[in-house]
């Protein structure tokens, strides 16, 4: 069995745009991917609402993705593949990150995954960096996101793609397959989860075949 860790934020956790509740497992992209891949794969879902790449959020403690990746890897190894989809929460007004800085945070996460401790056997896990879906232009400016959040999300893919090339990891852009919902301009609809799951399934098979 091949173990796949999906490390992300609320769009991995399965936040519903309307109610803020959690989509059932069979609706979430991780659950659909597990069904598609079958019993030879174990998809491990580690999504946390509000998780950043590498930033401490003063309004929401313990959501620094770089700091918590150690515990996640330690808990779930041995791993064959780690999928990391983070960056949207770096666009919050009170975090004030840049796409380049977020990509640097992703690069540090990659280095931790490749520390020689978490692979299946003597090999480090493969890594798939996924640039998140876009943030909608009409996102509620009264929430944590602001006028620069949508432009931030449109520049992030280029920076994360650069990190993937430089570090020799695999790369996907989730915005090519799913869009933010019209309700909150941030989270995926069930249709978005399904479309992303199909693309992820194909990519995972390509990586681990």
Description:
By secondary structure, the chain is α/β, with parallel strands linked by helices. It has a single domain (2-208), classed as Rossmann fold (3-Layer(aba) Sandwich). Helices cover 37% and strands 14% of the residues. The protein has helices spanning 10-13, 29-37, 65-76, 99-113, 149-167, 190-208, and strands spanning 2-8, 41-47, 81-85, 126-131, 170-173. It has a five-stranded parallel β-sheet with strand order 2-1-3-4-5, with helices on both faces. α2 packs across α6 (190-208) and α3 packs parallel to α4. The longest helix is centred in the last third of the chain and has 19 residues, at 149-167.
Q: What is the global morphology? A: globular
The largest pleated sheet is described as: 5 strands, parallel
User: What's the rounded overall pLDDT mean?
Assistant: 95
Determine the CATH topology: Rossmann fold
Q: What is the CATH superfamily classification?
A: SGNH hydrolase
How many H/I helical runs?
Answer: 6
Name of the CATH first level: Alpha Beta
Report low-confidence residues grouped into runs of 5 or more. none
Number of strands: 5
Q: Specify the helix fraction band.
A: 25-40%
Order of helical and strand elements? EHHEHEHEHEH
Q: Structural class of the helices, strands and pairings?
A: alpha/beta
Distance between the termini: 12 Å
β-strand amount: 5-15%
Number of domains: 1
The Rg value, from CA coordinates, equals 16 Å
Give the CATH architecture: 3-Layer(aba) Sandwich
Give, in spatial order, the strands making up the sheet with the most strands.
2-1-3-4-5
């Amino acid at each position: 069995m091949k173990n796949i860790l999906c490390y992300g934020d609320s769009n991995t956790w399965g936040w519903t745009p309307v109610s803020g509740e959690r989509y059932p497992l069979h609706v979430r992209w991780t659950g659909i991917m597990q069904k598609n891949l079958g019993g030879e794969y174990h998809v491990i879902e580690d999504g946390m609402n509000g998780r950043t790449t590498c930033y401490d959020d003063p309004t929401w403690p313990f959501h620094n993705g770089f700091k918590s990746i150690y515990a996640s890897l330690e808990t779930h190894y041995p791993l064959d593949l780690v999928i990391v989809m983070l960056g949207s929460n770096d666009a919050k007004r009170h975090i004030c990150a840049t796409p380049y800085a977020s990509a640097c945070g992703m690069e540090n996460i990659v280095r931790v995954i490749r520390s020689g401790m978490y692979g299946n056997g003597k090999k480090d896990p493969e890594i798939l960096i996924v640039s998140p879906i876009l943030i909608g232009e009409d996102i509620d400016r009264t929430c944590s996101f602001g006028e620069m959040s949508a432009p931030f999300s449109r520049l992030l893919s280029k920076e994360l793609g650069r990190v993937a090339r430089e570090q020799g990891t695999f790369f996907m852009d989730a915005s090519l397959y799913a869009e933010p919902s019209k309700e909150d301009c941030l989270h995926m609809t069930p249709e978005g989860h399904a479309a992303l799951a199909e693309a992820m399934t194909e990519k995972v098979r390509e990586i681990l075949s």
